[in-house]
Amino acid sequence: MPENLSTQLKKYLPQPILKLVKDAGEKANELGQELYLVGGVIRDLLLGRANFDLDLVVEGNAIRLAQELAKGNQAKLIIHSRFGTAKINYANFSLDVATARRESYSQPGALPDVQPGAITDDLCRRDFSINAMALCLTPQRFGELIDLYHGKDDLDHRLIRILHPNSFIDDATRILRALRYEQRLGFELEARTAELLQRDAAMLDTVSGDRIRHELELILKENHPEQVLKRAEELGVINKLHSSFKSNGWLTERFEKVRQISKQTIPYPLYLCLLIYSLTNEENERFLSRLNFPKRPAQAMRHTLQLKTQLHSLAKPQLKPSDIYQSLHSYAPQAIQANALASESTIVSQHLQLYLAKLRYVKPLLNGEDLKRMGVPSGPRLGEILNVLHEARLNGEVRTRKEEERLVYSWRHTL
């Protein structure tokens, strides 16, 4: 007889979410459909880890069910007809609803061909046994566990296990996900899974740069991404991201410093800048091209290496604040912060941090319109006075609006 987790589910989910889930199961039953809660939430329920990112799978028509669920609930419905999926956005919660499907791969690394299927087909296409469990939500079977691949046993034994020997060949991004889950949960790769992962590491070359970049982003958003990178190096995987990448003590120390200064945000762009810090410009360009990075992170990574070659100019102890500003204002903040963390020079780091904490925010109190009212004509002279005024403000030579005005009157006929 299948195990039933209804008691645990009722304790695990907040009451408003539990009600939505039960209502969804009842509505699916009225439509003659079977509804299941699937994926990571089942894993985290059994592990006692909070996860209210809920995915529902329907044996039937997910869009029709989602339309019924959204009625009268002040919910926003987003439909993706091509994929047979829908998202229902409530005030402070959302449900993803998908039609159960089966997948096949025309070639390694390709996106799968998809057809409607049963819940058994849907679980078969998943990555690891611990993510291939489902709970039935229809009333007669509410809470019944479907565990075709013994994911619950693997949770008990703290193992990451793929579902079949060709799993990494079909989709090599699972290699990076396996390492991410292993380190996040404190698990181990099941022995055969570890062998196949190393055997198939080269299959990462069959996957598009966008998909590899997405997996790298998820790794760098983990609590301790350096642990995943270290494991990737141990298993011969990290060089599939870039042949020159290494996970070492230097990177671990800098990532820890990043977390110390980034209490409120996920420091993904800063991690990236440190990850490429040892690369040459040419190596970095190959990395950016291979993973097809968007403009902003790519710019920050380029700036990181460009600024690295200019740090010697910031090593003088008595630099004026205006000199520091002029040296740094054209670089992305993440590039400056990465160099502040990476530099072995205390003076350089102090200058970089001064810019980030204070100098970049310093602006004159007077603007161009104010200067015109004071008799400064439009044109190059006005811009020159604004620049000199900014320098004086940076260097603490003026602090109030009155002091700025006096300086402008004294400069107006000399600049």
If you had to describe this structure to a student in words, what would you say it looks like?
With 415 residues, the protein is an alpha+beta fold. The protein has three domains: 6-152, Beta Polymerase, domain 2; 245-361, no CATH class; 368-411, no CATH class. The protein contains 21 helices and eleven strands. The protein has helices spanning 6-12, 15-30, 40-47, 62-70, 119-124, 151-156, 167-170, 173-185, 191-199, 209-220, 225-234, 249-261, 268-275, 281-291, 295-308, 321-328, 333-342, 346-357, 368-373, 380-394, 401-411, and strands spanning 34-38, 54-59, 76-80, 85-89, 94-99, 101-104, 113-116, 134-136, 145-146, 159-160, 188-189. The strands form three sheets. A seven-stranded mixed sheet has the order 3-4-5-2-1-8-9. Strands 6-7 form a two-stranded antiparallel ribbon. Strands 10-11 form a two-stranded parallel ribbon. It is elongated and about 90 Å long.
Keyphrases for this structure?
415 residues; alpha+beta; 3 domains; two-stranded antiparallel sheet
Structural class: alpha+beta
What is the overall silhouette? elongated
Q: Count the strands?
A: 11
Largest sheet: 7 strands, mixed
State the name of the first-level CATH class of the largest domain: Alpha Beta
Summarize the structure in short.
The protein is α+β, with helices and mostly antiparallel strands and 415 residues long. It is built from 21 helices and eleven strands. It folds into three domains: 6-152, Beta Polymerase, domain 2; 245-361, no CATH class; 368-411, no CATH class.
